[in-house]
Fold this protein.
Amino acid sequence: MKARTWLAGLAAGAVALTLAAPNAAVGAPTADPAPKPAVRQLDTPTGGGAGIVAKRDALGRAHSVRPTTPLKAPKSVASRAAKAATSRPDSAAVAKAQVDAVAPYFGARPADLVATGTSMSEYGSQTRFQQTIDGVEVFGGEIVTNLDKAGSLESANGEVALATYGAFPAADKVDAAKAKAQEAALAAVAKQGKLDVSKLKAELTGPRWFDMGLMTRQPGSVAIPVYLYEVTGAGDVRWQAMVHATGQALLAWDMSEKINRIVCDANRAIIQTGGEDVRCGTGKAFEPTRVEGGPASDVPDVNQVFEFFGDTSDTYQSLGTDLTQLIGVDYGDGKGKAIRGTVRICVDGGCPFANAFWNGEQMAFGEGVSTDDITGHELTHGVTQNTSGLAYLWEAGAINESLSDIMGEFVDLTNGSADDTPENRWLMGEGSSLGAIRSMSDPTKFNDPDKMTSPNWFVDDFFQDNGGVHLNSGVGNKTAYLIADGGGFNGQKMIGIGLARSEVLWHETQKVLTTGADYGDLAEGLRATCDKLAKKKKSGMTKKDCAQVELAIKATELDKEPAVGLPAQAPVCDTAGAKVKNLLKTSFKEYPDGKVVRDQGWVLGKAEGVDGSQVDTSYSKDGDDSMFGMVTAPDQAIGIQTANGTKIKAQKTYLRFQHAYNFYNVFIIYPIRTGVATLEYSDNGGATWKDTSTLSGWTNGPSVDSNFEDEPATWHGNSGGWETSRLDLTQFQGKQVKFRWTLHGKDNVDLVPANWWLDNASIYTCSK
């Protein structure tokens, strides 16, 4: 039996990529056969699961396990399942047994899944499991189980990292590494936020493994070692920064958001950090102006916020959540755990402060922005922080924002306020000094997207909005509006299920989402939650309601990828109905195939013909197989070339191939690239090779990286999936030509490996 080494997207067994392959030497330079650091594979997703797995990604990794019939608790915990409805420890124990059973579908090792909390309600329980590797948490690596009161598994949602690359420093070097990382975090936030670094403070949240594939739609999965910092500064400055364990800053993002109740009045005082100096409590930065059970204040903002805290608390209380216990804070001032807020704050350069924010502990408001929906919005950020923990990045951040809009609007629409007019329904921020800032019924009024294929979808290449967290929240907002009120949209006609059932649906869905959830995961969460609620008469939800929820999901296309920014595709022929004649064609189904020869470092997903190894991947364009190349050292280059020359006889002869790549890993602070790719040609039998980037006739060909404008055109950055490139070979008419795809390692490949997938390559003619 062959030894098994696994390849999953970015993750490739290092042994497999250093084996001597048949017909290997094609002339491209190669590096040390054992480059460092090496990829360490953790596990591989298990296939199958018919009637159990509801959603998989391109790597075969489950995102949603939703069995047709709930899975009964394993016999090993049968006695505890009988107590799962009333005992949190028993419920968590049953959840652990259940998640261990389905972990293979996610590609998770059961021993790596650590329970971090169990929430219980009249509908059952949710237990959140954090993926850890060597005892270190994986940012965004989570699975949430959803059990009924008998301990049966109704659903499980999440995703995990499949491999690691690199390592944390040795014990005797940790302190020096953290000091270097902290300095880098401060510098990164100062640069990204245009802030004075001397006025910033960084606090280590902890070491983390970080897999970009968990947070974005880029191909592959590999977790790298990082340090995560929280950085605070003047006013409402609250950022998070991620620094590679070697000290290279990778990401920095803005976290600020532009019933026992305690409200303080800053009386237009200028605050410096938005942290401790905004604290509301006896002996703190500001003394309480109004407390639970106390008299009203003569400051209108104080009384408004106090009432809006109550309105929001009432909404959550009706859903079975004690807001004070969930997000309240005790500052040790004798007033206990409370929902706290400070109003009428000012910051340097601006008074009144035209915003409101949740700082991780409590609320802070500028003068005049204390409306019911804004208050509900901001407090829901606290709920999200303490439940799903949705990252404030990319689609997860857009869902984070949307959930705050949704719950904030539910507060607004149900508290009997005077501004609940038909004209204001589903507007966010009406009545504040800011005015309405979003429309949930028609996000396009504010140029936000209302469906996944909307041209308004914001591809945040320059990280102006943390990857589009505010703008792209429109998709979730439109979904909530359609579920509640119904109507016609995008070819679907819905009957609204009303506000009461909508509130329960969205609140319970929040509990099953994970840190890195995308809109497809939200769709699965809504389905699983609605199915669960429909089984509970007290919820008021019915199967017919769930059918309407499904129509809303279809209307806003939650299951689709954004249309804006999708990988480009080249046509086969330019004329409809043209006849195609293949001169060379390979789908990389097997090797050797007589069509291509390769260097070390290129493998087939299933590695046919490579002795001593069997490598497995689900990442291929046609679902069959693909050729995968990886480099892990700067200036390393590996090539794969056509085995024989092709005589170009006719006009309208093309070379076309499908490929995906991961070279420039969306890290924003500095231009970090791990590799580039080129296509070369030889018209003298391989004696010499020339770059095709200077040739005419490309469709989706190589281009110049704006960060490295002095270098030749290449494929660079991240493809975001499979794209198709085509080169017109008419210019080689009369010549015998060979082609070589070459993957080149670049400066930061020691941080993240450079990866290139190739599939379905052909040379062909088009004719009438």
